[in-house]
């Protein structure tokens, strides 16, 4: 009962402070909206817009192979040709630099003549390979060029077999044949346990942003609740509490319970807004989501207790909360999927409790898996919560 | 007492605060460092960017008819993926059937399942027959499955090309009245295979970076400059406002009223306070520029441009901070107002979206409605090596905005305290 009284006191103290609303709800919602919009707009297909990457083509050659190259680019699933007049080189460079073009291909004069004479020819490609679009365009251009050269070789082979034939005819047939190659790759995204009637409806931009910001701000939201404990220690309220019949363990439990309730309520509201405002389908596995937010709240409360156990002043609470937020959120994949990070970073990131929280949410939201898929992430997160709690209790001082 | 005494006193207070030091230097370097670690050369230790290996589970359902030779296209594809050049890219395991392969992806034991169909060899060898290899992938992944798709496509284009060569050669023979000859098809396919073994498709492209340099900058190093600039701008604006908060704090503590009883004029006192903020930001920016150049090897651009961009940033941040604080009633409000307003304007100013590809174009326009957006624009130009002339316009905008904010803030402060 004393534990509940203490927790209730903390809760009313935290909720009376209008700053709590800002850190717990306004900021995560703002960030989710912003990143969901930015990432969603970047990845979502738009009706009436060719989704393929634009590749500028400058034809200085004017020969048949230049025409065939443009045909193969037209047929590509990844890139589309944008035929350009030769302009100022700096302007074209800038178009690639600004991302208006994923790459620029210059077909040099004499390209057709050289290749048809069985001599090596080379296309000039300007591309920013530090950008994903540039890397994708480069790979697509390698495929298209490979097919063009393959068609030239097929024409040469047919000419070797029969000297009377016209190379251009064979070349045209080979290029046409590449429209439907014999062996192809089809891609299917895993949908886990979903049936045809239950499709994953979450947009990937908001699914990453919503789950990521829930994880990130579960830590940031601790500022106000951890602050309560530090202020109690500073004002010697904790010491005075010990003169009452309440036990030390009850004091700690009361404060942790308040932290847990705050983060849990925050997570519930963020899930609710995510579901109904951002269209993230949390409701498809409600029990699994409930389990995940429960263990995430437990871990965050343990971290909050640890921060308040270590901090001596208010400044330290803010600093430690911010540092914890940056490190756990970035390394755990709350800002960007760990897949896109380097090998070492991804390996370290997967050790973080936040990475397991993200795994649990993504199993439901993006992989379409069912309740059992969150058991392992939840179990690991719970183990982290116990470890952090143990550490916090060990470091906790009443004076 | 002159304004320098006031400035020195404020500077001492700032540089003795651990919180201020962390927000000035620790936080921007920590965030940029984390992102550098994620995308930069530290990941591999040798300056190159290395992604984690993609785990591929293969279900080889390829069957050959008894009449066919021992040639198996499916086995060839697996052998190609097992090539030692690809061991750093893909990690292969085998599954007995399609269901097991799919299940491995569902259970996250594999990133991609590669399912080779039963008619793969038949389609590779028989004219008119087609086959499709299926890639069943984890939906949260994009890069790894994309690489596997490219590799498989590259391999299969060899077979498709050989079939096209055979088809074209046979068509030419028919057109010249020689009729269909199966041995001619086999010969053409063999010739094509010889061509593939001898040629290098990568060499058919001469790739250069947009700047014209043939050297490609590593992905992480290319993006770390704008990311660091974004973090620097955010925390310089933060410290600008945090420094101006000392007026409110001194007012609450009663020391501001006492200062006004001294012979020093109000203008001297307020001027000293703003001088303290300005010097703090100069030190902060200088340290961040130098530290990031040393740690992340960022080349910030031409010295004169860097000086101008720094000046514009500090004037704008000081003015913005003064104005922001002039609206605040007590220090209890500073944290949330500071955090909320600066986060919102920083977001809209494009400070935290550097490195995210394909951002909607409208965001660039919105960014220039914020002082942080102009600061980011200035530093991007500086990082791109622009000269003083090219960055003069955004620097002027920053200075004008800073002066405007400063004037508004000063007027409000004067009305409240003097």
Notable characteristics:
heterodimer, A: 399 residues, alpha/beta, 2 domains, 16 helices, 5 strands, B: 418 residues, abc type-2 transporter like fold, four-stranded mixed β-sheet, 65% helix, elongated
Radius of gyration of chain B over all CA atoms, rounded: 32 Å
The Rg value of chain A, from CA coordinates, equals 30 Å
Largest interface: A-B, 106 and 110 residues
Sheet with the most strands of chain B? 4 strands, mixed
Low-confidence stretches of chain B: 42-48, 212-220
Oligomeric state, counting identical vs distinct chains:
heterodimer
Q: How would you describe this protein?
A:
The complex is a heterodimer of chains A (399) and B (418). Chain A has 399 residues and is α/β, with parallel strands linked by helices. Chain A folds into two domains: 2-42 and 203-395, no CATH class; 53-177, abc type-2 transporter like fold, CATH 3.40.1710.10. In chain A, 65% of the residues lie in helices and 7% in strands. Chain A has 16 helices and five strands. Chain A has helices at 2-16, 18-43, 64-75, 89-97, 111-116, 132-161, 167-177, 204-220, 222-234, 237-242, 248-276, 286-310, 314-331, 343-349, 353-365, 375-395, and strands at 53-59, 79-83, 103-107, 123-127, 183-189. The longest helix of chain A is centred in the middle third of the chain and has 30 residues, at 132-161. The radius of gyration of chain A is 30 Å and the shape is elongated. The mean pLDDT of chain A is 84. With 418 residues, chain B is of the alpha/beta class. Chain B has 15 helices and five strands. In chain B, strands 2-1-3-4 form a four-stranded mixed β-sheet, sandwiched between helices. In chain B, helix 3 links the parallel strand 1 and strand 2. Chain B is elongated. Chain B starts with a helix and ends with a helix. Chains A and B meet through helix 2, helix 4, strand 4, helix 6 and helix 7 of A and helix 2, helix 4, helix 5, strand 4 and helix 6 of B.
């Amino acid at each position: 009962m004393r534990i509940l009284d203490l927790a209730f006191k903390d809760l009313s103290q935290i909720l009376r402070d209008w700053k709590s609303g800002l850190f717990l709800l306004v900021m995560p919602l703002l960030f989710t909206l912003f990143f969901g919009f930015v990432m969603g707009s970047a990845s979502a297909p738009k009706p009436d817009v060719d989704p393929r990457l634009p590749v500028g083509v400058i034809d200085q050659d004017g020969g048949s192979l230049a025409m065939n190259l443009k045909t193969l680019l037209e047929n590509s699933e990844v890139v589309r040709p944008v035929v350009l007049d030769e302009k100022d080189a700096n302007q074209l460079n800038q178009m690639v630099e600004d991302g208006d073009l994923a790459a620029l291909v210059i077909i040099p004069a004499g390209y057709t003549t050289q290749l048809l004479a069985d001599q090596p020819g080379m296309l000039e490609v300007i591309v920013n390979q530090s950008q994903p679009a540039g890397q994708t365009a480069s790979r697509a251009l390698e495929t298209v060029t490979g097919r063009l050269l393959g068609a030239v070789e097929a024409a040469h082979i047919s000419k070797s077999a029969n000297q009377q034939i016209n190379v251009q005819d064979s070349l045209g047939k080979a290029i046409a044949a590449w429209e439907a190659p014999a062996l192809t790759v089809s891609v299917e995204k895993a949908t886990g346990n979903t049936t045809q009637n239950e499709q994953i409806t979450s947009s990937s931009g908001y699914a990453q942003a919503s789950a990521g910001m829930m994880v990130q701000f579960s830590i940031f939201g601790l500022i106000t609740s951890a602050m309560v404990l530090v202020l109690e220690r500073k004002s010697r309220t904790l010491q005075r509490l010990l003169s009452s019949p309440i036990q030390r363990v009850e004091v700690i439990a009361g404060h942790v319970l308040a932290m847990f309730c705050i983060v849990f309520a925050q997570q519930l509201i963020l899930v609710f807004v995510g579901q109904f405002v951002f269209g993230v389908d949390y409701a498809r596995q409600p029990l699994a989501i409930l389990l995940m937010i429960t263990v995430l709240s437990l871990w965050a409360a343990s971290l909050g207790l640890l921060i308040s156990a270590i901090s001596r002043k208010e400044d330290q609470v803010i600093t430690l909360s911010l540092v914890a937020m940056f490190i756990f959120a970035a390394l755990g994949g709350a800002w960007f999927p760990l897949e896109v990070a380097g090998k070492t970073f991804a390996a370290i990131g997967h050790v973080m409790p936040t990475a397991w929280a993200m795994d649990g949410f993504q199993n439901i939201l993006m992989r379409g898996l069912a309740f059992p898929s969150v058991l392992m992430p939840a179990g690991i997160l719970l183990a982290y919560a116990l470890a952090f709690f143990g550490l916090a209790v060990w470091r906790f001082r009443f004076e | 007492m002159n304004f320098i005494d006031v400035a020195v006193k404020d500077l001492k207070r700032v540089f003795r605060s651990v919180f201020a030091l962390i927000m000035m230097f620790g936080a921007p370097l920590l965030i940029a460092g984390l992102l550098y670690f994620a995308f930069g050369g530290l990941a591999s230790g040798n300056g190159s960017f290395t992604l984690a290996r993609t785990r591929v589970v293969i279900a080889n359902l390829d069957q050959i008819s008894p009449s066919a030779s021992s040639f198996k296209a499916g086995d060839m594809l697996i052998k190609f993926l097992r090539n030692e050049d690809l061991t750093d890219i893909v990690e292969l395991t085998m599954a007995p059937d399609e269901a097991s392969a799919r299940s491995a992806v569902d259970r996250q034991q594999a990133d991609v399942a590669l399912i080779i169909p039963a008619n793969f060899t038949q389609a590779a060898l028989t004219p008119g027959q087609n086959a499709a290899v299926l890639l069943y992938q984890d939906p949260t992944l994009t890069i790894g499955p994309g690489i596997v798709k490219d590799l498989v496509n590259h391999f299969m284009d060899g077979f498709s090309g050989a079939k096209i060569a055979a088809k074209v050669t046979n068509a030419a023979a028919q057109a010249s009245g020689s009729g269909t000859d199966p041995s001619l098809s086999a010969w053409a396919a063999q010739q094509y295979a010889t061509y593939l073994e001898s040629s290098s498709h990568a060499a058919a492209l001469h790739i250069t970076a947009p700047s014209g340099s043939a050297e490609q900058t590593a992905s992480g190093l290319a993006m770390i400059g704008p990311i660091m600039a974004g973090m620097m701008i955010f925390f310089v604006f933060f410290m600008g406002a945090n420094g101006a908060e000392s007026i409110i704090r001194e007012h609450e503590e009663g020391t501001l009223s006492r200062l006004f009883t001294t012979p020093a004029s109000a203008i001297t006192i307020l001027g000293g306070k703003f001088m303290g903020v300005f010097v703090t930001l100069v030190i902060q920016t200088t340290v961040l520029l130098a530290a990031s150049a040393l740690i992340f090897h960022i080349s910030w651009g031409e010295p004169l441009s860097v000086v101008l961009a720094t000046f514009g940033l500090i004037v704008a941040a000081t003015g913005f901070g003064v104005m922001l604080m002039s609206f605040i009633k007590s220090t209890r409000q500073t944290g949330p107002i500071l955090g909320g307003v600066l986060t919102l304007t920083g977001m809209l100013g494009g400070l935290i979206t550097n490195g995210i590809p394909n951002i909607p174009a409208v965001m660039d326009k919105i960014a220039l409605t914020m002082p942080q957006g102009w600061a980011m624009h200035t530093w991007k130009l500086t990082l791109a090596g622009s000269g003083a002339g090219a960055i003069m316009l955004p620097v002027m905008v920053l200075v004008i905005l800073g002066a405007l904010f400063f004037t508004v803030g000063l007027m409000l402060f004067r009305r409240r305290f003097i």
